[in-house]
């Protein structure tokens, strides 16, 4: 036997052992981050305003990890007058539901001057993000990206090749504060947040200083200079694109360079080519481009508002070849698709299915179906959003704490309705009953059960208005089974579901006057928010909460307590 391991055989065995050791080491690594959250004066679009920063920067640092790593982020809240909570968007928090970072759902907020440590594992490769999940703080600048590489030798190896990669974080930006916005939304009559002043790419935009208040805008600042992405002729590049907009659906384009979509929300996609990408708040994509255009000039990266009549200039960055001058491209920035071209966006949604080599088949049928009618309503004269005529409100005591500690009366024990009059409701008409009720009740799911959720979009309080809503589920990925335009019929449309190769996602669009069907398995013990990722809409009640397997959650860390009925005890 000893002779058989000599020479090439021994070298092969040694290489195999080394690869396995490196893979195990990568999985076992723990990555530590120290973050101080503070307000700083920033000029991301050349206009100076207060922004919530991480270690003085917005966006915050990109967290780079490898599948299987443990990430530890020690957060110090130096905001002085504001609480903080940070959600790790797309990270499922298996075994650590208290680290999801959702104030009112999984934790009490981090008080001014306090320190809180988030510890969680990244179990799946892909492109993700993080952001504030307290009030409307996300739109103030507390956000960034998470990039998780596949474990060496793992089954999740990427089914595509590229020579280099770039990260792109898309955002929208207002000059008025989030406190002003929240107060306006809660006012009678409502003071809507309005269209954003700028669109940012990697935290940079360019506002027209002639329209700014005197002394507040400086277009010469490097802080608001267009980002530059360098490419080499003939090479293929992966662009990881994440949208953390507070309001805007976007159309993203790289001038002259078709994009091949290969990843969505951390899952590999059956590749398809687009000239521009529709992307909604809370979504991530990876696209491949070939640097095969004239290398003697530069090209625009352009972000444009769609789904709403835009009042915001194009957000821009520059794709630069090595032989091109360091100057803006010679062409105007692309204007993108027509803002009201719903079918272009709808077709992209339908085209996004699982890569043939990475299909995870969904369970063939659901144990429970929840039908949610998404409407705009009023409560005491205030405009709200509601599901099945119930507008969501967060409790003062986090659900996870209340349920584990048996705190009676911490939230409404009556579950919200899970059906509506789908056979008779006219989705193209204004709500026949404009008045809604509010509740902090939740849906309790049998652990291990398969749940279908169908989101139905409808007309708003104004005639002939229905908007796109991107819905995000915490703690899970779900299979996207189908989309439709018009009224969902549970006796007809389930037969059209894609059970062959549906994509797994954590955020999905519900198109104007349309429906979206998704399926997930309630197998992650905890309490999980499911809500529209438009900041103002969740603030106005467009969300629900699921509980599953709460009895399986281990002992809660005392640091998540200290508010509502959880005060004074661990």
Automatic annotation (TrEMBL):
Pfam families found in the cross-reference section: Cu-oxidase, Cu-oxidase_2, Cu-oxidase_3
E.C. number(s) listed in UniProt: 1.10.3.3
Subunit text: Dimer.
Reactions catalysed, as given in the entry: 4 L-ascorbate + O2 = 4 monodehydro-L-ascorbate radical + 2 H2O
Keyword Secreted: yes
SUPFAM superfamilies registered for this protein in UniProt: Cupredoxins (SSF49503)
Entry GO terms, CC: extracellular region
Alphabetical keyword list: Copper, Disulfide bond, Metal-binding, Oxidoreductase, Repeat, Secreted, Signal
Origin species: Panicum virgatum
Signal peptide boundaries: 1-28
Cofactors (names): Cu cation
GO-annotated molecular function: copper ion binding; L-ascorbate oxidase activity
InterPro entries, alphabetized: Cu-oxidase-like_N, Cu-oxidase_2nd, Cu-oxidase_C, Cu-oxidase_fam, Cu_oxidase_CS, Cu_oxidase_Cu_BS, Cupredoxin, CuRO_3_AAO
Domain Plastocyanin-like: 41-150, 168-323, 423-549
Coiled coil segments of this chain: none
Location within or outside the cell: Secreted
Catalytic class of the enzyme: oxidoreductase
UniProt record similarity statement: Belongs to the multicopper oxidase family.
Protein name: L-ascorbate oxidase
First-listed, main subcellular location of the protein, grouped into a coarse class: secreted
